[in-house]
Every structure is written in structure tokens, then in C-alpha cells.
Sequence to fold (272 residues):
Amino acid sequence: MSTPVQTISPQAASLFASLAEAQLETGAIDAFSGGSSASGSTSSSSSTGSGLNFASLLSDVLSIDGSGTSSSLLSALGSSGLSGLSPTVLNALLGSGSATGSSATGTSIAQTAISLANDLTGPNNTSFNPVTTPQTAQQVWNNPQWGNGNIQCVAFVAGAYQQAGLQLPVTPNAADFWPAYANRAGFSEIPNGQGMPQPGDIIVMGGGAQGLGHVAIVTAVIPPSGTTSGEISLAQANSPASQTNMTIAPSGAVDSWQGMPVLGFIRPQQAQ
Fold:
């Protein structure tokens, strides 16, 4: 007599595949980096982030029925679990088709930005390795106003977009991105708190030194849920960390650094 085979929903199977792929990728990153993931955190073969492990995540995946979504998994993990997920796992579970509506173009820009951010060096991540950094990005960064050792935040964004196959029509000072791209053909602006950011978006901040502001590229998004805050991940240059996170308040507004308010997000038409 044969034993009945237990089946799972297609949605759970899809999430399981993403989770398994993320686990393998995290293990590979750890193996090649001597035990540190791309986010700088250490992990073991069974760990996907601080306080979480593959078995517990798998259990949550398999408990989702056919009507479940990736947000169902996040709800199952709970607010304490979100902070423990590594960027690799989050990108796999919340990539294209996630609640943020990320497009293939947006995902490509985000992945390119992460790769380029990993190449940056120096106290404020303004230098790059000419051997490992792709030539297309180097051509943008070696503009006379920037150059190796002086990769500003605007240069990083422009280089990442160019490497992903999109050329930015103008590259003013960071704070001036917001007025420069207002009503510009091929781009849309989402004021902070009036719509959820997506991977590949350019986040624009005002304030800062001499009021020049700051720009970076959104690489991952965890939307807020109810009274629980969400989070966005960023890739950037001319900052102490080439990759960082910011909180999305339950209201949907992104909380930035003191004195540097988030003006909003710029999204290319191809990523909409």
C-alpha cells in the first residue's frame, strides 16, 4: 500500500524555491568571503540571518495555503524576524512580483547597484577597484568632475543606471534631482509618504552639507504592515556605508538621517 504524498500550494512551492535558492546563495557568499555575507554579517550553513534559520523559515513557507502571498510569509515571521533576514533572502523572497511591485528593470538596477556598492572602498566609499569594476560604470565615474577616489553619490547612481542599460538625462547636485526630474519625460516622482518605493528607484534627500543633499538606489523594500514599520535597503557612495537600511514608518513615509529629509523617489518609466 502506497503512502499518500503530501502536497503544498503553488504559492508555497514558489516561496520554497526562492528560499532554497537564497539559502544556497548565502552559503556561497559565506564560503567565498570567509564566513561573512555581503551585508557584513556572519552566518552558518543553517542560518539566514540573526536569530533565524532555514528550518524555521521553511516551516513558515510550508504553512501558507494557496491564497497566501509573500506578505503572508512576512506576517508569519513576525516583526522580530524581519530584522534578522539577510538582504540575500529578502531579495529572493521580495524581488520581482513582491508586494512592492518591483519590475524586472527595477530589479536589474537594484542588483547592479548592490554589485557596484560591493566594489567601493575607502573611508567614505569613494574609490573603486579598476580591475573588478565593470567598464561601463567606470566610464561614468571617471568623468572629470568625479574620478577614482572622488565617487560622489550622484556619480554612483549615474554609473549604476548606465551599467544596467539606462542613461540618466541629467545629473545635477543630489538635492536638485527632485526639481530636475519633475515632469520629465520617461520618469515619475513619488513624494515621500505618498507611495511605496520599489527596488531600482532613486531616493532623493535634501539638506546635508551645504544643502547639497544625497541620492542612493533602493535595492530592497519591506512594506510596513499595520502598526509595524517596514524597511528599505540602499546602495550608495560617498557615505560611511555603501549599503544601509532606513525605516518605513507605518504611515508609509521613510525616516532618514537627521537634517536630511527624504523628498521622494524617482522611477524610470521602464521600471513602472
User: Anything to note?
Assistant: The chain has nine helices and eleven strands. The longest helix spans residues 10-33. The longest strand covers residues 214-222.
